[in-house]
Amino acid sequence: MHGYEFYVDPSRxxxxxxxxxxxxxxxxHRGVSMIHLDFIDREWTTASTPMVxxxxxxxxxxxxxxxxxxxxxxxxxxxxxxxxxxxxxxNCALACPFGVPKVKIEMELMMKCDMCYDRTSxxxxxMCATVCPSQALMYVTPAEAARLRRDRPVNTFHFxxxxxxxxxxxxxxxxxxxxxxxxxxxxxxxxx
Length: 192
Known about the structure:
The chain has 192 residues and is an alpha/beta fold. The protein has helices spanning 18-25, 60-63, 91-95, 117-120, 127-131, 142-148, 183-187, and strands at residues 5-8, 36-39, 48-51, 102-104, 109-111, 137-140, 152-159, 162-172, 179-181. The protein has one domain (5-187): Alpha-Beta Plaits (2-Layer Sandwich).
C-alpha cells in the first residue's frame, strides 16, 4: 500500500491483545503471533503497549546474524529470518534495541513482525492494525495520521549514545523530537 505508514500510540493501548491474536491468525504466520504486548512499567502501572517490529533503517538484528538470514527489502520492511539459513542462535533477539525478534526453538527459526508483508504487498492493511479497537496501531497515510492525532509521530530513538531511525512511527507528547531510552536509569528507583 504505497503512501501508508505504520503508527504506534502506546497511550491508547488498552491491553486487550486483539492485535496479538489477529497476528497469530494471519495465514503466513503458521498460527504464531509475531508481535507481543509489553508492560511499560510493571512495578508502577498496568499500562501496556503492542510491540511490533520498528523496521530500523540500519537493523541490528540483520547486522548480528552470522548466517545472513535476515534481509531488509527495498520498501524498508525487515523480514523474518529465512528458514533455510536461520540457525536459531538468538543473536538477533539480543541485538534488537526494541526486544522484538523471538526465536521459536521448536521451529529453529527467528520470527518477528514483518508488517504483514503478505497483506500489505497486495493492498491490505496489517492484521493488527485492522482489529485494534483503540487505534493504538494504525496503518494510514501521513495526512490521515495528522488528522487523527495532535501528538507528533517520531521515528528517532536514542539508546544511550546510539541513534536508531525506524520505518514505524511512535506517537510522543507534543514537543518531543525523539524518544530517549535509558535502560539503566529506568531500572533504578530511589528508595521512597
